[in-house]
Amino acid sequence: MGTAAQQRLSITDVDRVLVSITLCHAFGIGSAVASAWLSGAAVVLPGASGIRGCGSPSQRAEATLAALASQRCSLLFADVHTLKALPDPGDKDLAALRGGVCKVGSGADFLEDVKEAKIGPSGELKPLQYAGVPLIALGKR
After folding, report:
1. What domains are there in the chain, each with its CATH number?
2. What distance in Å separates the CA atoms of residue 34 and residue 90, rounded to the nearest whole number?
3. pLDDT 10s per residue in the chain (141 long)?
4. ∠ CA(13), CA(17), CA(20), 5° rounding?
5. Can you tell me the distance from the alpha carbon of 8 to that of 119, in angstroms, rounded to the nearest whole number?
6. How do 109-111 and 116-118 pair as beta strands?
7. Which of 15, 88, 104, 135 is 20 to 30 A off residue 95, Cα-Cα?
8. Is the Cα torsion angle 103, 107, 110, 113 positive or negative in sign?
9. Best CA proximity match to 19, nearest among 32, 34, 36, 37
C-alpha cells in the first residue's frame, strides 16, 4: 500500500504528508504514513487524528485545514467524511498543496476513473478535490 501511494503521488523527501485519519486504520498507517516514510517525507498529524482516535469529521476538518496551512503540507490523505466537512479555505495559504488521496470506500485500489464522491452538503456528487487540487480516489474496484 505504501509503495503504491509513494509511486502514484511521486512523493519525495521534500513533501509534507498530512494524515487526517487515525493511524489505527490501514489507510492511515499502511498508505499515508508508509508512503511518506518510504520517501523520507515529513508526516503531519493534525490534533484530531494520530494514534488517539479519529474525532468527529468536523473536528478532523478543522484540525486538517489548520495543519494544511500552518505546516505547508503538499499532500493530503483524507476520507470522504473529513473532505465533506472541510470548509472553504478562505484566506488560508494552501499554495503548497499539490495533491492527495481520498478514501471513498472499502478496499485499497487507486480508482483512477473515479473523479467525484458524495461530498456535497446533501450527499450529492461533487468533484473529488479540495481547494481546487484534485485528489485520487482509493477504494474497491
Report:
1. 2-139 (3.40.50.980)
2. 31
3. 899 999 999 999 999 999 998 888 889 899 999 999 999 999 999 875 554 556 778 888 999 999 999 999 999 999 999 999 999 999 999 999 999 999 999 889 999 999 999 888 888 999 999 999 999 999 998
4. 165
5. 23
6. unpaired
7. 104
8. negative
9. 32
